[in-house]
Amino acid sequence: MKIFLDTANVETIRMYNEMGLVDGITTNPSLLSKEGGDPQKVMETIVDMIKGDVSLEVVSTEYEGMLEEGRRLRKFGDNVVVKCPMTPDGLRACKTLTAEGIPVNVTLVFSSNQAILAAKSGAKYLSPFIGRLDDIGQDGISLVKEIHDILRNYDFKTQILVASIRHPIHVVQAGKIGADVVTMPPAILGKMLKHKLTDIGLKNFLADWEKLKKENPRIRI
Ligand code: G3P
């Protein structure tokens, strides 16, 4: 399973990247706006820092505008994946950009029908937003399972990028299904790392070591 971070916070990306945990990044206009500053600089810094795919989203809603923005964004680096919305113009832009060798992540996918169409338009990734489905009383993770089953029946190369992750259980569920990628806010990755028994275990090991040191003052490892 590949782990992407769903953030535009450069410092957090750097921290988790140094632990070797970041296979890629997804951003969107909301995440960039949360960070403030010059969004182009932020995007370029992230693209330079990360070896894997970095999704940068177009803001135009028209085909021509999406192409223009997608081509411009791709100039930031060879690891840029252009994020296009799941709309008729978005799919058309996906097809054209893909034919030009620019990979596309089709975003805002909320049904298996949309997922089939995103895959048919040649998307490298399709992003079901599972948390937002949960928010309206639908089962986001079942959608991932259904999309996974459908894509497996055919020769699609499109990868499922599970987005709008709300908690670590979503990550485990996506892993059990075999989703290719999960993109998560850094806070979820932080929660995945932690377990209270790890903290208690470490505290006890260190306390016992201190005891040993008192009995053997010259001991060292
Ligand atoms: O990558 C998509 C993601 O940012 C959406 O998450 O929490 O705004 O539903 P959320």
Explain what you see.
It is a single chain. With 221 residues, this protein is of the alpha/beta class. The protein has a single domain, classed as Aldolase class I (TIM Barrel, Alpha-Beta Barrel), CATH 3.20.20.70. Helices cover 53% and strands 16% of the residues. Helix 4 crosses helix 5 (88-99), helix 6 packs across helix 8 and helix 8 (140-152) packs parallel to helix 9 (168-177). The longest helix is centred in the last third of the chain and has 20 residues, at 196-215. The two termini are 36 Å apart. The model has no long low-confidence stretch (mean pLDDT 97). Bound molecules: SN-glycerol-3-phosphate.
In short:
Helix content is 53%, strand content 16%.
Which descriptors would you attach to this protein?
221 residues, alpha/beta, TIM Barrel, eight-stranded parallel β-barrel, globular, binds SN-glycerol-3-phosphate
Unreliable stretches: none
Q: How many helices does DSSP assign?
A: 11
CATH architecture: Alpha-Beta Barrel
Q: Identify the bound ligands.
A: SN-glycerol-3-phosphate
The sequence of SSEs as H and E is EHEHHEHEHEHEHHEHEHH
Stated plainly, the CATH topology is called TIM Barrel
- Gross morphology is globular
Fraction of residues in helix = 40-55%
Query: What structural category characterises the helix and strand content?
Result: alpha/beta
Number of domains: 1
Question: Tell me, what is the CATH class?
Answer: Alpha Beta
Task: Count the E strands.
Answer: 8
* Percentage of β-strand residues: 15-25%
**Average residue pLDDT:** 97
